[in-house]
Write a structure and sequence with these properties.
Strands 1, 2, 3 and 4 form a four-stranded antiparallel sheet that branches. With 83 residues, the protein is α+β, with helices and mostly antiparallel strands. It has one domain. The protein contains two helices and four strands; from the N terminus they run βααβββ. 29% of the residues lie in helices and 30% in strands.
Length: 83
């Protein structure tokens, strides 16, 4: 099985790791859903299996294309099912 690592907003961590979106507002949920659809379409899955512990600020990250502005990010690792 292959993995992919992406730098994503740290405030997505609970949703990506635990499936808990309770801390996100509607706009953030929409952006996360768009990212999830992208991951499923391109990689076959959107289940994060790990992430780094220490966030770092990044102007450009892997969620930039989903209208997420500069923010603290973590590096998330995902299993992929599509090569």
């Amino acid at each position: 099985m292959q993995t992919i690592t992406m730098s994503l907003p740290d405030f997505w961590a609970s949703a990506l790791i635990n499936g808990d979106i309770s801390s996100l507002d509607n706009d953030e949920i929409m952006k996360l859903n768009n990212f999830s659809h992208f991951m499923i379409h391109n990689y076959g899955s959107c289940n994060a299996v790990d992430c780094t512990d220490e966030p770092h600020f990044s102007k450009y990250h892997d969620a930039t294309n989903f209208d997420v502005l500069a923010c603290d990010v973590l590096d998330f690792t995902f299993f992929t099912t599509i090569n």
